[in-house]
Amino acid sequence: MNTLILRTTSSFLFTLLLLLSVFLLFRGHNEPGGGFIGALVAVGAYALYALAHGLSAARRLLPLHPLRLVGWGLLVALLSALVAFLLGKPLMTGVWFSLLGVKVGTPVIFDIGVYLTVFGALLSAIFGLEESAKAHRSEEG
Amino acid sequence: MSPLVLPLLVPLTTAVLCLVVARPKVQRVLGLLGALALLVSALALLLEVHRRGIQAVQIGNWPAPFGITFVADHLSALMVVAGGVVAVAVALFALAEPDLPRERLGYYPLSHFLLFGVNGAFLTGDIFNMYVWFEVLLLSSFVLMVLGSGKAQLAGGVKYFAVSLFSSVLFLVAVGLLYGSTGALNLADLATRVAGLPSGFQNALAMLFLVAFGLKAAVFPFFFWLPASYPAPPVTISALFAGLLTKVGVYALLRVFTLLFAQDPAFSHGVILWVAGLTLLLGAFLALAQGELRRLLSFQLVSHIGYMLMGLGLLTPLALAGSVFYALNHMLVISALFLLAGLLYHLQGTSVLVRMGGLYRSHPGLALLFLLPAFSLAGLPPFSGFWAKFTLAAAGLEAGAYAIVGVALLVGLLTLLSMGMVFAEVFWKTPPEERAVPGGWERLVFPVVLLAVLTLGIGLWAEPLMALSQQAARELLEPTPYIQAVLGVSR
């Protein structure tokens, strides 16, 4: 979609949406929001950018393949679940500690894992769809 | 630190590490190490359960019946151990014959997610969580089934996908009805409440669960999908499926029909006995009519699920012990036969029986190796299959169920006949065409030898496993310690 308005605004919106997604991620602890919703918004940002600037431009904004992010996200979630286990409590029990004066807990870390996993999974689906559409077009043309 | 969650954490960690490290060479090592670690953790769990009784853990420390409960009794722990053995054998086979395209598509993470789901289903103490674990293992198995997108794989995958989804919907409906009528989902909590429901409603629920799990376990009349789909993927995938997936259905039936629906055994377990008999007969006869090795084995797989249901249908301590012993023995034997089918495919380039032959002359040791699991499947002494069938037959005679014992013995003979036919076709017959024998098969033998030696070892030294199976059967028939282990911990 090659319109000037979309191309100009999408660059602003991309940053704004990513900020919003991180805001939603951390807001989710006590209020509506969370890793899942936050990741959906972030994927929305990438999809908008891909619509305006093309898929390869959107791909360049991500330094690694989105499927790798699924692995890293799951790893983060797994580690957050393991903290309690290693402390001798049942798996996934919430553990809270203070980091530079900010109260941090394993549920937040788990949510970050969810964020990365959902983001990676949906983004690789979107990139995959676009790839198969491209292959289809080149077969016809 | 309880070892109860280790059989879940190990495959999950392995799968996640395989996702993070994309290089196939590293994944191979991780896959084997993960399978070995799974076996070790499963053995640790069995030891813990045997020493200290039934183990229960409330995930996240939310008390039962509201939290997520995992329970391990002898049955669960034994199934997890047998699953670990199958996982190790398959991992060794996959290492010996690397399938690079499928490894790039994620064979290792997917197979360990599958093990994660299977172990979750074995260990969960909550009927809705069991549904979730079924979904975990189904999603992984859907992808594994069509991994590489072969034409036969896609055709088999569609059938598998449709049947599995249908069974999941039925399962979910049954869980919904159960929750709506009792207000509980925790199995131990349900066990105390189901008895209060009207008996007609209980029986209706029982039949819904029988159909839902029967579809998964591939019993009569719901087995048609299994021989249509299992032979399609490569053997490192189908051996894993054959060893594990139907047993999850059998496990779910064993659990639900002893803990929840044992109030009207004349009806519910009578139906199960009919299902068992028809599964045995139809599977065995259909196996005789097959001309392709893996399809034949798939029908044998279906047929022998009947033995495990037979013990459940009889519902005596000895019969249930027979069922458990049979399930464990069958996991090893059928995986060995599927892996052997893969090895024969490697040697002959086909698994169509008429086009195979002559292996007795070129590989006499291999012929002997085939006979070990084949005789065990048929139930000849001194293999583990003999004790499994012997226990079930003894239990049947004790209960006066002569018809099903007759069927069981007849199917044993039919299995022997079918295995004899395979032996004659693959090993004795002069091959229809001369072909060069490819090398490199020696590496593939090792996992089969491992499983074959295990079935022989269990046969010669059956006492410990039989004692464990009998303990599992006692726990199934007397659910009070199970209920106390779950509900007592939190209070």
TrEMBL record, chain A:
It comes from the Bacteria. The keyword tRNA processing does not apply. InterPro entries: CPA3_antiporter_subunitB, MnhB. It is found in: Cell membrane. The keyword Calcium does not apply. The chain crosses the membrane at residues 12-29, 35-57, 69-88, 108-129. It is a multi-pass membrane protein. It holds the Pfam family MnhB. Residues 5-123 form the Na+/H+ antiporter MnhB subunit-related protein domain. Keywords: Cell membrane, Membrane, Transmembrane, Transmembrane helix. One of its GO terms (cellular component) is plasma membrane. Belongs to the CPA3 antiporters (TC 2.A.63) subunit B family. NCBIfam families: PRK12509.1. This is Na(+)/H(+) antiporter subunit B.
From TrEMBL, chain B:
It holds the Pfam family Proton_antipo_M. Keywords: Cell membrane, Membrane, Transmembrane, Transmembrane helix. It is a multi-pass membrane protein. The keyword Chloroplast does not apply. One of its GO terms (cellular component) is plasma membrane. GO terms for biological process: ATP synthesis coupled electron transport. It is found in: Cell membrane; Membrane. It comes from the Bacteria. Its main location: membrane. Residues 125-413 form the NADH:quinone oxidoreductase/Mrp antiporter transmembrane domain. Signal peptide: none annotated. GO terms for molecular function: NADH dehydrogenase (ubiquinone) activity. The keyword Cell membrane applies. The chain crosses the membrane at residues 6-22, 29-47, 75-95, 107-124, 130-148, 160-181, 201-226, 238-261, 267-289, 301-320, 326-345, 366-387, 399-423, 444-462. Belongs to the CPA3 antiporters (TC 2.A.63) subunit D family. This is Na(+)/H(+) antiporter subunit D. It comes from Meiothermus luteus. The gene is mrpD.
